Amino acid sequence: MNTGSDEPGEVAVASDGAGGETPDETRADGARDGQGLGSKAPEFIKARRALHVSWQVGVFVIGLAVVAAGIVMLPLPGPGWVVIFGGMAIWATEFVWAQLVLRWTKRKVTEAAQRALDPAVRRRNITLTSIGLVIVIALVAVYLWKFGVVMPWKIKDQ
Question: Taking the model in full, what pTM does it have?
Answer without folding.
Answer: 0.51
